[in-house]
Amino acid sequence: MPNPKRRHSNCRTRLRRTHYKIKAAVVNHCSRCGAPSRAHRVCDNCGYYGFSKGGDKKGSEVFHKEEF
Ligand SMILES: [Zn+2]
Question: How much distance in Å is there from the Cα of 61 to the middle of ligand 1?
Answer without folding.
Answer: 15
